[in-house]
Specification:
- By secondary structure, the protein is of the alpha+beta class.
- The chain is built from 5 helices and 6 strands, in the order H-E-E-E-H-E-H-E-E-H-H.
- It has a single domain, classed as Aspartate Aminotransferase, domain 1 (Alpha-Beta Complex), CATH 3.90.1150.30.
- A 6-stranded antiparallel beta sheet has the order 1-2-3-4-6-5.
- Helix 1 crosses helix 4.
Length: 130
């Protein structure tokens, strides 16, 4: 089970990442662009999911595109999900208490790469353009 401390550790280990509080929740950004954030479920989300409340923490994470979001949800709907609020948006919601620490690290890095400038991603990954 992953925690907010794990999210913070993984996010802030990435180049040019920063943390700030927005709307009462933690947000991690790269060069001013959010890549992972605390995302409590709102009433409309709960209604869309057909539940009264969500007991555990929910993380929002940027994805490369909507195809990646849908692939994650299909891969493991006990961990990854979405709501109508995110229709048309390249981001997935994550049951933080259901994701492994290892998978969280991968997800945070992928979210960072989706929002970081391409040159920074290449530099971080040690790759160079063809």
């Amino acid at each position: 089970m992953a925690t907010w401390d794990d999210v913070r550790e993984f996010a802030l280990a990435l180049p040019c990442a920063s943390e700030r509080v927005s709307r009462g929740g933690a947000h991690w950004k790269v060069n001013g662009r959010g890549f992972v954030w605390e995302r409590p479920l709102r009433r409309a989300d709960l209604e869309a999911l057909g539940i009264d409340q969500r007991a555990g923490p929910v993380l929002g994470a940027a994805t490369e595109d909507e195809a990646v979001k849908f692939a994650l949800v299909a891969e493991d709907p006990t961990v990854f999900f979405t709501t109508p609020h995110f229709d048309g948006y390249a981001a997935v919601l994550v049951h933080l208490d259901a994701i492994s620490r290892r998978r969280l690290g991968e997800l945070v890095a992928e979210a960072w790469a989706a929002k970081a400038p391409a040159a920074l991603v290449r530099e971080h990954l040690g790759r160079f353009p063809d």
